[in-house]
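We include this case.
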Amino acid sequence: MRRYRFVTVDVFTDTRFGGNPLAVFPDARGLTDAEMQALAAEFNLSETTFVLPPDDPANTARVRIFTPKVELPFAGHPNVGTGFVLADRAVAPEARGAIAPEARGTGDGVLRFEELAGLVEVRIARDAAGAVAQAVIAAPQPLTLGEEFTPVQLAGCAGLEPWEVVTENHRPVQAGVGNPFVLMEVTPTALTRAAPDTAEFRRVATTIPALAQRAALYLYARDGAALRARMFSPALGVGEDPATGSAAAPLAALLLHLSGAQQGAWDIVQGVEMGRPSLLRTTAHRTPDGIRATVGGSCVRVLDGEATL
């Protein structure tokens, strides 16, 4: 019988049982693809991560990210949470075998994770006592904008009416910085009462090729200087996600794109309607290869255990 240690953390929160829960396997050597997928389905969280030795020893680790149904090329809260776990000095040395020897003990600097979407950098900040206080990730790709949609096409996926979709700033649009989402601005009232309609998601996916495989809808509303958001993706096995860093980052990049400014920062609150309030701190800035974004926040360690296979 094989045993694999795991750690769970609540991400984008400083309060236990808030934020977005994540399971991390700090040393996944020996697990097959099917076993990783089965473990992710067993945890039934938005994502579960598996840490493996990097292909390039100059990097910290290779990280694979699974929802209950599929593997993802990149995601936000799994990177923030995995960075937090690997930088946590309380993680037993025997559980850190998958980390490149050259990278161990680098929690005060930058961790580099090899992922399907590219190299993801996680910057770790510590408090005065030396504990990990925050992790900030740089998205692996610049902003990519794809197909635009009409409110009529998408409003029903969130149980809304087309008039509740705000289009004065932009139409619903597919955008990504490593993992694409459809970003749709709605009224504050609509955001609160929105609910995923799985049947409508399936119907829309048959008519919109961009949504056929991984239909993920990120709703947001303006709340003064801050933003509120919700994410629905039944196709990924995630009815609603408490905090979605890989959607918050392209939203920040899109807002910068629309503003014409050189850089910007936005706080995004998500998960309130689920009873798991989350705070995602995002930035975006222009570079020669396009608009780059970061997303970060705090984490709380919750569970330690073993999975037996």
In short: The two ends are 6 Å apart (CA to CA). The first helix runs from residue 33 to 43. DSSP finds six helices and 18 strands in the chain.
